Structures are given as C-alpha cells and as structure tokens.
C-alpha cells in the first residue's frame, strides 16, 4: 500500500523533477559529508593519540 502511494507521489513529483533531484542531491551530499566527517574524526583521533604519545 505504501508503495502505491509512493508511486502516486512520484507521478505528482514528476512535474517538480528539478527540485526533487536537487533535494536528493542535497540529501546524498549531506550523507556523504557526515560519513566523511566521521572518518576524518576517527583519523584525527588516531593522529592526535600518536602525537600526544610522542610528546610524553
């Protein structure tokens, strides 16, 4: 049932395709950014641990 309503929404959305594609792009970019920041934080944490250990 959800799938059918989603299809109907898609049909209605086809007229607003540019905004939809932009929205999807924005969401995926946000997701990518979150993943990237998590990775960077992890790497940064490891790097900081190494540097603090070397200073001791």
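-> sequence recovered:
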């Amino acid at each position: 049932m959800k799938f059918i309503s989603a299809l109907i929404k898609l049909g209605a959305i086809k007229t607003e395709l540019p905004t939809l594609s932009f929205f999807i792009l924005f969401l995926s970019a946000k997701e990518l950014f979150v993943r990237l920041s998590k990775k960077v934080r992890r790497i940064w944490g490891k790097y900081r641990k190494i540097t603090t250990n070397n200073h001791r």
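The helical segments are 2-13, 17-55.
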